[in-house]
């Protein structure tokens, strides 16, 4: 498949033009023009790039790419090594940030909800990135913690009232703790995201709505994994998902 055709297809599938973002979405580094094998992962770290080189992949597809708003744009140090790896081996880098969070089927939020069995009912927050839904049956927040720990393979952090019965749940993967107040206003009994800061603890305690930090990386593995399956099943590419472990 031609690289240009792959980019166009993914840009349209993920509705790149619909969302405001903090980085360029789509093709970030151009490599060889013919793509047969794609390595997929959460972040375009050096370890993932090294896997791509060793495996002879034509392209790398990630959720977290490069060229973030406000970053120092100089090509030195770690940034130089990463770009040199891609350019030397003619490996393309494609990255989809908010578009891969928001997609109604392949997105991180959709995939996390499906994994957990949450019944999606609507959206909230900026650009409708947050998801609202219900549990299959009401249960204490502490039980939701145990369910997430079992499915994600890591221990999440719950702050606030663990005995609060959860009927309506709100979630947004990754670093979306800033949507907590909007989740409360939307009527959530529990809000789930990836990261947590000091002020979030007080908001959970004082609002009565518990907050569950399940890990930025851990909650965002599933969208790009679903996209890897899509590349194979729909576009006929050889696509492989690799999970480079990250405890955060």
Short description:
With 248 residues, the protein is an alpha/beta fold. The protein has helices at residues 3-13, 46-55, 77-88, 98-102, 108-116, 141-152, 180-185, 198-207, 216-219, 222-235, and strands at 26-29, 37-43, 59-64, 92-95, 119-124, 130-140, 157-159, 165-171, 190-193, 211-213, 238-241.
Task: Provide an overview of this structure.
With 248 residues, this protein is an alpha/beta fold. It contains 10 helices and 11 strands. It has helices spanning 3-13, 46-55, 77-88, 98-102, 108-116, 141-152, 180-185, 198-207, 216-219, 222-235; strands at residues 26-29, 37-43, 59-64, 92-95, 119-124, 130-140, 157-159, 165-171, 190-193, 211-213, 238-241. The chain has a 6-stranded mixed sheet with strand order 5-6-8-9-10-7. Strand 5 (119-124) and strand 6 form a beta hairpin. Helix 2 packs parallel to helix 3 and helix 5 (108-116) packs across helix 10 (222-235). 43% of the residues are buried. The mean pLDDT is 98.
Core attributes:
6-stranded mixed beta sheet, alpha/beta, 10 helices, single chain, 248 residues
């Amino acid at each position: 498949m031609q690289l240009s055709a792959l980019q166009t297809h993914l840009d349209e599938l993920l509705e790149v033009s619909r969302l405001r973002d903090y980085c360029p979405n789509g093709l970030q580094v151009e490599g060889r023009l013919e793509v047969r094998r794609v390595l997929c992962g959460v972040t375009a770290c050096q370890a993932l790039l090294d896997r791509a080189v060793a495996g002879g992949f034509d392209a790398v597809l990630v959720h977290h790419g490069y060229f973030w708003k406000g970053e120092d744009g100089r090509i030195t140090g770690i940034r130089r090594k990463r770009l040199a790896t891609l350019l030397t081996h003619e490996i393309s880098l494609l990255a989809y940030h908010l578009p891969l969070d928001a997609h109604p089927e392949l997105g991180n939020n959709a995939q996390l909800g499906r994994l957990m069995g949450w019944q999606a009912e609507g959206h909230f927050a900026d650009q409708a990135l947050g998801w609202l839904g219900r549990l299959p049956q009401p249960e204490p927040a502490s039980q939701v913690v145990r369910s997430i720990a079992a499915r994600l393979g890591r221990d999440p952090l719950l702050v606030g009232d663990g005995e609060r019965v959860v009927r309506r749940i709100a979630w947004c993967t990754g670093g979306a703790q800033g949507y907590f107040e909007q989740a409360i206003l939307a009527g959530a009994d529990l809000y789930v995201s990836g990261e947590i800061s000091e002020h979030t603890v007080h908001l959970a305690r004082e609002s009565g709505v518990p907050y569950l930090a399940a890990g930025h990386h851990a909650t965002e593995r599933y969208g790009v994994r679903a996209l890897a399956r899509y590349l194979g099943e729909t576009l006929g590419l050889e696509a492989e998902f690799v999970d480079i472990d990250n405890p955060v």
